[in-house]
Amino acid sequence: GTAKRRSDMKLTFKYLDIKGLGEPIRLALTVGGLPFEDVRLSYDDVVALKGVAGDLTKHNGSPFGQVPVLEIDGRPFGQSGALLRWVGRECGLYPSGMKQLRVDMVEDTLADVRRVMAPNWYKNAMARKPKDGSLPRSTMLSEQQVSSVRWMVQEEYLPERMWQIERLLMEEEDPDANGWFVCGKELSIADLSLYVMMEGLLGICPKANTYCKGISAEKALMHCPRLVRLIKEVAKHPKIAAWNEEKWGEHYDKGFGGVTADLHFQKLGLNLRPKPKTEPKKQAEPVNPLKFLLLVALYVVFMILVVQFILPGRTGGYNMPKAGQARRSTLGGGEL
After folding, report:
1. Residue-wise DSSP of 214-277
2. Helix (H) or strand (E) holding 76
């Protein structure tokens, strides 16, 4: 039969009451004008979606035991990346050809960033178990290890990844005329994903979109004026600004410009500067107390060995008689 028209599809989107991985999909549906039911779930609701007790052949509303889930005419589909691309294609936000490659490059780069953030989300070297959503105890991370992950993401991974995206945006010689988005004037799902992640890491809407606690994007965006402009342009999109006001308005800090965050971006813009041509001197990584104590202990042991064995051997020993004493002893021995 003929393909069903977009307006005839009944769409239900299920996700937690946060922005996270689900918000780019909500925004794509909103910008594209696809009506959908926006269902906000609790963590208990998510667990209930995983499976049917006593029957491993069935799930209870989530094909992969995770959210987000998009129901299309009652049939559930999962995996955030797949859902975002499908919605983007339906809404004209996922282009074809070379532009699709640009969008996919950015999306895959953001997926790389999320992977290195995962230990901070879960305080674990592994993600949640796909069967029941629990975290394995054997791979839990200490606070020191989690702190080291945060430092590495904020100081190394995030700045370099955002600079790589900035370089991609710099390929457009005249963004004022041709547009600030990943594909010029055409808004795409990549712009929505960038906006949601950076808004969360800048703390613009902290109650709804922390994204990754303990990690800030301010250093990462320090040399990325085009990326900052892209985020501002997305925030000012009429449909996105209206969505934010309706769904999240109470969570935005009015002192920083509300849903468009104008004053926040103005403050951030004061610190933006060109990327230096030479690599800046890297900051030292945080010291691990256990490693420090081990090094001190090894040093002490080494000094003891030097004092006890090496120095005595070079000086002839600590109990060697003085030269005069040795001569008299020798003479006395001869007289006997």
Report:
1. T--STTTTTT-HHHHHHHHHHHH-HHHHHHIIIIIGGGS-GGGTGGGTHHHHHHHHTT--PPPS
2. strand 75-78
Burial class (CB in 10 A: 0-12, 13-18, 19+), 81: middle
Beta carbons within 10 angstroms of residue 48's beta carbon: 13
Burial 285-314 (b: 16+ CB within 10 A, else e): eeeeeeeeeeeeeeeeeeeeeeeeeeeeee
Residue 66 corresponds to which tokens in the numbers above?
């995770």
Pairing of strands 11-16, 75-78: unpaired
CB atoms within 10 A of CB 327: 11
Contact 186, 95 (CB under 8 A): yes
Asked whether 116 and 157 are in contact (CB, 8 A), the reply is yes
Model-wide pTM > 0.85 = no
Three-point CA angle 36, 77, 182, nearest 5°: 70
Per-residue pLDDT of the chain (336 residues; tens, 9 = 90+): 334 556 688 999 999 999 999 999 999 999 999 999 999 999 889 888 887 666 676 788 888 889 999 999 999 999 999 999 999 999 999 999 999 999 999 999 999 999 999 888 889 889 888 877 888 999 999 999 999 999 999 999 999 999 999 999 999 999 999 999 999 999 999 999 999 999 999 988 877 777 888 899 999 999 999 999 999 999 999 999 999 999 998 888 887 788 888 888 887 877 777 676 666 566 666 667 777 788 888 988 888 887 787 776 665 555 555 555 555 544 444 444
| 135 φ/ψ angles, rounded to the nearest 5 degrees | -100, 135
Q: Check: CB of residue 118 under 8 Å from CB of residue 150.
A: no
